[in-house]
Amino acid sequence: MMTKTKADKYPQRVRNELRFRELTVLRVERAGAAFQRIVLGGEALEGFASHGFDDHTKLFFPEPGAAFTPPQVTEEGIDWGEGVRPATRDYTPLYDGRTSRAGLRFLYPRWRYRQPLGAGSKSGR
Fold first, then answer.
1. Does the keyword Nucleotidyltransferase apply (predicted)?
2. What is the DSSP string of 14-73?
3. N or C, where is the chain less crowded by C-beta within 10 Å?
4. pLDDT digits over 57-114, tens only?
5. Considering the entire predicted model, what is its pTM?
């Protein structure tokens, strides 16, 4: 029988490997009255893990018409080089290891309620 310690009762910080993944939008769906869910998949999700309630992932949004060039990951951190750093947003992933798919929930702004579901979002890369 294992003995539990006080430390076992508290969340432990786990540092996941820093990787940049190019994923495919598999599905866009409404998730309740005020949210939209985007389901992502692809081979790049191999090795992805999200076990904590406070895990987060970043999405990078390059300028329209510009290609995304991932930065170099170095011992000192992330080096974006001379290029323009794209806008980023943090999201809590909803990861399903059985299907190897990740979902992200977005607040659906009130002004968008009259827009068709998925307006502005599309499947693909």
1. no
2. -PPPP-----EEEEEEE-SSSEEEEEEESGGGTT----STT--EEEEEPPTTPPP-PPEE
3. N
4. 888 888 888 888 888 888 888 888 887 788 888 888 888 889 999 999 888 776 655 5
5. 0.68
